[in-house]
TrEMBL record:
SMART domains: HDc
Record-linked Pfam families: YfbR-like
Family annotation (Gene3D superfamilies): Hypothetical protein af1432
NCBIfam families in alphabetical order: PRK03826.1
Cross-referenced SUPFAM superfamilies: HD-domain/PDEase-like
InterPro entries named in the record: HD/PDEase_dom
Domain named HD/PDEase: residues: 29-154
Record organism: Pseudohongiella nitratireducens
Name of the featured protein: 5'-deoxynucleotidase
């Protein structure tokens, strides 16, 4: 049995529940990073399965789901940077990406040495499988789109332009699995519980 060393890793990332997303917008429906990560993981799971089942993909579905669960862990250090700020200028984007990469490595170093190689491909974005990362980014964008639609449907016009912008970003994806998900699953998100149960 290996020598056990105490690690703060999971206690640290459990704080993701306190990080609110969309911090620069008034929200009708609050969303924290932990619940967002779960939603992205479920959508990424669907995208990977759809890709494999219908579009001749050979993706490791379980690896996609695990990486999706951890995809925003660095935000426990960096906070949730709103996209309009993160991508405002190329200089800001480069600076923020450098901070994210440093946060990824800092989190990795919290783990026992014997586990770090196992976590590296899910914690350090630069070392993730590109095809898996592409599915996770698509799932992240779908999650953002569904959030914007829910806010607008709840009467919050603060998200109207974001819904248009994120929707346009989704249309630029050259991905049959994204189209399949949006056509098959997304329309139901606008229904009430009573309508879903009918």
């Amino acid at each position: 049995m290996p020598t056990q060393v105490k690690s703060h890793f999971y206690a640290y990332i459990s704080k993701l529940r306190w990080l609110q997303r969309w911090g620069m917008k008034r929200n009708v429906i609050n969303e924290n990073v932990m619940e967002h990560s779960w939603e992205v993981a479920t959508i990424a799971h669907a995208l990977a399965l759809i890709k494999n089942r219908y579009f001749d993909g050979k993706v490791d579905v379980n690896a996609v789901v695990v990486a999706a669960l951890y995809h925003d862990c660095s935000e426990v250090i960096t906070g949730d940077m709103p996209s309009p700020v993160k991508y405002h200028t190329p200089e800001l984007t480069r600076a923020y990406k450098a901070i994210e990469h440093e946060a990824d490595r800092e989190l990795l170093n919290l783990l026992p040495a014997g586990l770090q190689d196992d976590y590296r491909p899910v914690l350090v974005e630069a070392e993730m499988d590109p095809e898996q990362m592409s599915l996770i980014k698509a799932a992240d964008t779908i999650s953002a789109y569904l959030k914007c639609k829910a806010e607008v449907q709840a009467g919050n016009q603060e998200f109207r332009q974001a819904e248009l912008d994120v929707g346009a970003r989704l249309q630029r994806y050259d991905s049959p699995e994204v189209t399949f998900f949006l056509e098959t699953f997304a329309p139901s998100y606008g229904l009430t519980l009573d309508e879903l149960l009918r």
